[in-house]
Backbone:
């Protein structure tokens, strides 16, 4: 059975991203109208970024919701896409297991299993069995929408995923955290890298939440930042 690497491509991101956000920011604080502000934009990018940084760090997030970004994603497990689709401000178009025959379904092997040859053999033999039974069901006239009931969480999927910049920052905050599962962490890391390639100034915002907060709000810290509870204890007891 085929096994492939995660692939992520940036489909679209606005060309005039900084101008769009800057116009949104200035519109809130200027006596001028949005049309005048957009028509008379400064050419000084640093000036624009300085205002944008201040507005983002003060939590005035509506200004970055105007930026819509789309990605094409291949070779991601159904387990990971199930986690991704929990993000309610994202839009998805995902390969359908109702319409597409999965007779040679691709699957994603978690890296922990890849490292253990015995377990990997067991995993692969199970995948082969599943494919055989799936094909038997379809050949017996079972509809694909019912035959898919036996496909595993590891079955590979493909999707177009879109979100605005506010949601991308939120997604990065949650899913770059080491508490998130490795596969979705790797996916979100690639999505962020592609965006930072185009807009390097966004690097400081596309970070795990602890870097934004300055502490870890999980039960256990990976050690990158102190736990919130530890900071409070230190503040009270010195
Ligand atoms: C490490 C980790 C472990 C997890 N484990 C589990 C688990 O065991 N079981 C499980 O079911 N899920 C689990 N989740 C999923 C988690 O509960 C969220 O559903 C998912 O992360 C989406 O986050 P969100 O709701 O903040 O984001 P989004 O849906 O992307 O929404 C962004 C923000 O919009 C606001 N918002 C959106 N919808 C509403 C609403 N209806 N009402 C009020 N505010 C809203 C909130 O402020 C929210 O933070 C886990 C997530 C992580 C990162």
Residues:
């Amino acid at each position: 059975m085929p096994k492939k690497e995660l692939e992520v491509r940036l489909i679209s991101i606005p060309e005039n991203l900084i101008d769009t956000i800057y116009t949104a920011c200035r519109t809130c604080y200027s006596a001028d109208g949005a049309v005048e502000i957009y028509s008379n934009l400064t050419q000084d990018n640093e000036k624009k970024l300085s205002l944008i940084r201040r507005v983002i760090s003060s939590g005035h997030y509506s200004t970055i919701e105007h930026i819509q970004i789309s990605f094409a994603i291949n070779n991601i497990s159904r387990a990971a896409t199930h986690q991704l689709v929990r993000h309610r401000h994202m839009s998805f178009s995902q390969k359908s297991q109702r319409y597409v025959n999965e007779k040679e379904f691709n699957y994603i092997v978690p890296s922990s299993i890849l490292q253990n040859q015995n377990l990997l053999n067991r995993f692969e033999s199970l995948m082969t069995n599943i494919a055989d039974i799936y094909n038997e069901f379809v050949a017996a006239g079972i509809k694909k929408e019912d035959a898919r009931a036996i496909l595993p969480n590891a079955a590979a999927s493909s999707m177009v995923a879109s979100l605005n910049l506010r949601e991308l920052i939120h997604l990065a905050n949650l899913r770059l955290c080491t508490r998130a599962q490795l596969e979705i962490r790797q996916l979100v890391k690639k999505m962020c890298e592609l965006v930072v390639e185009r807009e390097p100034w966004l690097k400081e915002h596309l970070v795990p939440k602890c870097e934004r907060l300055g502490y870890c709000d999980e039960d256990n810290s990976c050690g990158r930042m102190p736990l919130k509870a530890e900071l409070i204890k230190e503040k009270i007891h010195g």
